[in-house]
Amino acid sequence: MSKKAELEDLKNEMKKATLPLKREATNLVFGEGNPDAKIFFLGEGPGYWEDVKARPFVGQAGALLNQLLQSIKVERENVFITNVVCYRPPGNRDPLPEEIGAFQPYVDKMIEIIKPKVVVTLGRFSMAKFLPGVKISIVHGKVFDVNWKGRQIKVVPMYHPAAALRNGDVMFQIKEDFLKLPELEPI
Ligand code: URA
After folding, report:
1. Which of 34, 61, 79, 122 is 20 to 30 Å from 108 by CA-CA measure?
2. Pocket residues: Cβ below 6 A from ligand 1
3. Coil vs helix vs strand at 87
């Protein structure tokens, strides 16, 4: 089966599953991008527009993510983008540990299917999945070699784009951190 078909199957399985946050949400935001992506972006959770459009990072934070990708001449279509929870938390509240836990097997399966070389975590919730106990202000933009289910993956924690929109220093840092990505992996 092709990776595209495997992802489609997984999406259908998720749609049928009883998952937290589903009742309050409009749509499943499975994720999107190239099934052969070398770089996998993992955000926090869908916001208002993501919930409406059933696509990740299509609101203001998404516009910034698009600009950051353009700054390194990477097409959005060539990466894969999803979140640690795939239904919108009401009012955009932080996802709870048990909610993140319920989506974890599905997000892990996406990584297993796509087999990216690099996972960029956007914000502290996705960072904690790979690098528990670290502080984003200290580790952002650094490259961590992680053994993920028997495969070596480079994990690069970054600030969340929404945080960059609120804070000029964070904006400066996320722009700098993105510039390091092409050195890691030809995309
Ligand atoms: N913020 C996220 O973490 N994910 C999205 O998809 C949109 C905004």
Report:
1. 61
2. 43-47, 50, 56-57, 59, 61-62, 83, 162
3. coil
